[in-house]
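INTERNAL AUDIT FORM
Audit reference: QA-55
Scope: verify that the stored structure record matches its stored sequence.
Auditor: D.O.
Record contents follow.
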Amino acid sequence: MIALQVIQTAKDTNERLTEKNPIPGTAIKKSVDLSVDTSKTYQSIVGFGGAFTEAAAYTLSLMSREKRAEVLKSYFDPVEGLNYNIGRVHIHSCDFALENYTYVKEYDIALESFSIERDFKWVIPMIKDAEAVRNDKIDLLASPWSPPAWMKTNNEMNHGGQLKEEYMPVWAKYYTKFIEAYENQGLSIWGITVQNEPAAVQVWDSCIYSGEEERDFVKNHLGPTMVSEGYEDKKILVWDHNRDIIVERASAVLSDPEAAKYVWGTGIHWYVSEAFENVGKVHELFPDKHLLFTEGCQEGGVHLKDWSVGERYGRNIIGDLNNWNEGFLDWNLTLNEMGGPNHVGNYCDAPIISDTQEDVLHYNSSYYYIGHFSKYITPDSKRVHVNCEDHDLYVTAFKRPDKKVVLVIMNEKDIDKTITFNIDEIYSEIAMLPHSIVTVIL
């Protein structure tokens, strides 16, 4: 008899990433609701993580030393935390910064004044402390929300606008200055996105590109500059926005060989659309390119004790993973009791809310749902084939480098479910509670 490890999180219980009694597995064949075939493999996993925003780092600076350390351990400890190995940073300000700011003085086209000094106050210490918890480097994805106001058609960082053509070479060099500055601090910039949400005119830091404009900026400026500055090994991701028009936008860049040669893949956000099949279509069209979920959060302030938020995370993670996505980057690692700070009041939720008034941490359902993936699906794990007859369930499975198989099953319904399943030649069954998620490891 073989024993399968089971970890469960369930609504209306105290179970939160709780290890249950192992369930028995047998080689005796039986009819199943769910079948895992590890001989059919798909994409490899880059990892899981969240964003080191100024808002998150500043919020933690207001907490006691013990609570700040707890948040970092809860995310980055490989055993006791969520085992995060990747992160996202903003290139100068975003909405989850305390204000609009850049790294250069106005009209400094030589970038002689370029300085990341502001990031030394909160952001970089948070990243370095997270690395100390993980006892390893954290691969960072860097994204700009807007060029400096003087480079833009609307002469401000907020409310959209576009990058002026004459500043495209300068702006391309800006990314490489950022990479150089961060790597001089011993940090690891794994890749960059061209522009956060290039189709959205926001009241906060934003900049608009059409698909063709993004293509031409990558082809004529950003790609060649990354190469000439010695950063051709850094990944470039396009789009970095929602699934609704991801096929159209990815195609605009990746259909051009001269642009595509610089591009690692496409970034995904979850707002507006859960059309996971669109993510899969991008893979079908461009199978040599990659896909990475780069941002998602629950909008509209803090949602303590809202179970549906965790289920939104689970549903989206599974939906994208089953359509060739290679990793998951949550948005703010933590926010304050308001869901900020945010310099335009665009308050949101985070998996851990840090109450700066009471010095109390609140762990949301999203924290535990993410953990069912990030703690057990390690980097370089390969997705394997799953067939599930119960269409009420959300299911994905991976084979890790250590040969263990990780099966994640999510039940969003109000009823108990007993699921019979096999992983290759091993057969078993599991009882799932209403509104629960389980990770099974063989």
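Auditor finding: record pair retrieved intact. The chain has a mean pLDDT of 98.
Action required: none
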